[in-house]
Design a protein that fits this description.
The chain has helices spanning 24-32, 34-40, 123-141, 153-162, 190-197, 270-294, and strands spanning 3-8, 11-20, 44-48, 55-59, 65-74, 78-84, 95-104, 108-116, 169-173, 176-184, 219-227, 231-238, 241-253, 256-265. A hairpin with a 2-residue loop joins strand 13 and strand 14. Helix 1 (24-32) crosses helix 2. It has 295 residues and is of the alpha+beta class. It has two domains: 3-162, Alpha-D-Glucose-1,6-Bisphosphate, Chain A, domain 4 (2-Layer Sandwich); 169-294, START domain (Alpha-D-Glucose-1,6-Bisphosphate, Chain A, domain 4, 2-Layer Sandwich), CATH 3.30.530. It is built from six helices and 14 strands. The strands form two sheets. The protein has an eight-stranded antiparallel β-sheet. Strands 9-10-14-13-12-11 form a six-stranded antiparallel β-sheet.
């Protein structure tokens, strides 16, 4: 794969390289002329003031409007801008989009694309989306009809694995350790995910958590907090004594539902932290597979 996930100024940065059989001048026009940009970019470019500090006005499906500011302009080498998120798509700071063209003799060029953002769990969603966009760009440059490929679950999950987005992290807290997973799902709405987790039924405080909310190696206690399609929490035990809590949270992220799963435990049970990291990763992978088979 010619994609990688790194860090720039402390923020996640997606980098994609594509070799194009066209000179930089032709590719530059496809990047900077609104009529051509609109054919392969996720948003339609309505207006563009092509100068450093100039504004680009984009429109997306459903009339969503987004503005950007050109941050770098060095024809035909560098074109970069900062995207301002629409009000209905809040985020911590502006995304940065950067294109660099390098000559690739005899008559082609190397496109280096970089997208800097804040939401690391969304990286696979962004990568699969840009994969489709750059494929559309290549069709445009080849003067062939631009066709948008259907989203590929396999491609998305390949990026999840490649970037390590299915792995959990461990955190230290005043009360002990915490294992945390954030898993962005592709084209899976929150209500469908909740229905699978509850096995089509319901969950109530004081009762046992439905089986899909539990995993092997973690002794689950009664549900202590629940809100349908939003969260579920229960305590877990070790050797018949309270040890910590497991908390599931569902929200909507780019492209579908997001699962945020945490398990806490005391410092005197370090082996259970290792168990939790392995068990929950396997559990979430199986859940994703089940949801895919239902699609």
């Amino acid at each position: 794969m010619q994609e990688s996930l790194g860090v720039i100024d402390g923020r996640p940065a997606l980098r994609i390289e594509r070799r194009l059989a066209h000179p930089p001048e032709k590719v530059w026009r496809a990047l900077t002329e609104p009529g051509q940009l609109s054919q392969w970019y996720p948003f339609r470019a309505l207006r563009m003031d092509l100068r450093p500090g100039g504004m680009i006005h984009f429109e997306g499906d459903g009339g969503t409007v987004m503005d950007a500011v050109i941050t770098e302009l060095d024809p035909p080498r560098v074109f970069a801008f900062s995207e301002h998120a629409p009000e209905e798509m809040p985020r911590e700071s502006d995304d940065l989009v950067h294109f660099e063209l390098r000559p690739d003799p005899p008559d082609g060029c190397l496109l280096i694309f970089t997208h800097v953002f804040d939401d690391r769990p969304a990286a696979a969603s962004y990568a699969s989306g840009w994969h489709s966009c750059l494929a559309a760009l290549a069709l445009l440059l080849d003067e062939r009809p631009v066709e948008w490929p259907t989203s590929s679950f396999d491609l998305y999950e390949t990026y999840v694995a490649e970037f390590g987005l299915n792995a959990g992290i461990t955190e230290e807290t005043p009360e002990g350790w915490r294992v945390r997973f954030e898993r962005q799902l592709m084209h899976q709405p929150v209500d469908k995910v909740w229905a699978v987790l509850t096995e089509g039924g319901s969950a109530e405080a004081g009762g046992p958590p439905p089986r899909p909310f539990t995993t092997s190696g973690v002794q689950a206690g009664p549900v202590t907090d629940v809100e349908a399609q939003a969260r579920l929490e229960y305590g877990w035990r070790q050797d018949d004594r309270p040890a910590g809590r497991v908390r599931w949270k569902l929200s909507t992220g780019p492209g579908g539902a997001r699962i945020t799963l945490t398990q806490t435990g005391p410092d005197d049970l370090p082996a259970e932290r290792v168990t939790a990291l392995t068990a929950w990763q396997t559990h979430l992978d199986h859940l994703v597979k089940e949801l895919r088979e239902m699609s």
